[in-house]
């Protein structure tokens, strides 16, 4: 005779969370809730950015969709409100957010010409324009300038080499303006150029291309020399100049 023994079911083991685990779970739940709010706000911002793109219409002619003055003002406002230890993170995050907003108006095409220290110029362009931008290397300045002059994108060009492409900003590339500098604050090693609406240039030091040295014009305005070539000088100045005037102003950087 076979005897069947029925095993009594044992209750599932109860796992008790420690106070630390419960606290961590609560924090993660709070982060999930914040992430949901951020996602909702980000998608709302993208939708509004697309509407802004349709509303943009530069009054003085066709220009790129970039508004460096607006970006400068918004970034200054946000970093001023941020806690000191968060300012760098806020700045980097906002650059990405605005980059994706611009992408809703058409993906920004950025050409980089930097025969010397190209990796640094690429990193600077990526930081400035964000992951949404289509950034590519080109191997001559004329290609980069032509791309910017078409008005659908911008270019970043090195000023530390022997190619004095910047002289052309006074001549055949006068439709372009410098709107950003990358590298040391007083002596950037590369500049961003594009068909920027002049009123949309950032508030800051003017970029000038002049015949002669960088000693100044006697007005007392400070100058920072960036490069020279056959009697021409590329420099920064804190003088209040307008783009295209007789002083050789070709743009502005923060």
UniProtKB/TrEMBL annotation:
SMART domains: CM_2. It is an enzyme of class 5 (isomerase). This is chorismate mutase. Residues 18-109 form the Chorismate mutase domain. It comes from Brevundimonas terrae. Its EC number is 5.4.99.5.
């Amino acid at each position: 005779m076979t005897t069947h023994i029925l095993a009594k079911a044992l209750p599932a083991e109860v796992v008790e969370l420690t106070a630390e685990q419960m606290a961590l779970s609560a924090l993660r739940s709070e982060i999930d809730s914040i992430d949901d709010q951020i996602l909702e706000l980000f998608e709302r911002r993208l939708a509004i950015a697309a509407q802004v793109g349709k509303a943009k219409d530069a009054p003085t002619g066709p220009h790129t969709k970039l508004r460096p003055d607006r970006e400068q003002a918004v970034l200054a406002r946000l970093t001023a409100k941020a806690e000191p230890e968060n300012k760098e993170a806020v700045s980097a995050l906002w650059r990405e957010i605005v980059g994706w907003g611009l992408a809703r108006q058409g993906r920004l095409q950025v050409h980089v010409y930097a025969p010397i220290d190209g990796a640094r110029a690429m990193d600077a362009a990526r930081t400035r324009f964000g992951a949404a931008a289509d950034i590519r290397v080109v191997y001559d300045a004329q290609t980069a300038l032509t791309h910017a002059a078409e008005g659908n994108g911008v270019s970043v060009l090195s000023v530390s080499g022997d190619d004095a492409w910047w002289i052309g900003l006074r001549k055949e590339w006068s439709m372009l303006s410098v709107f950003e500098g990358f590298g040391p604050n007083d002596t950037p090693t590369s500049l961003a150029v594009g068909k920027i609406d002049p009123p949309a240039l950032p508030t800051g030091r003017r970029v000038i291309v002049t015949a002669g040295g960088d000693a100044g014009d006697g007005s007392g305005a400070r100058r920072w020399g960036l490069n020279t070539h056959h009697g021409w000088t590329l420099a920064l100045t804190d003088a209040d100049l307008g783009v295209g005037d007789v002083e050789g102003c070709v743009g502005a950087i923060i």
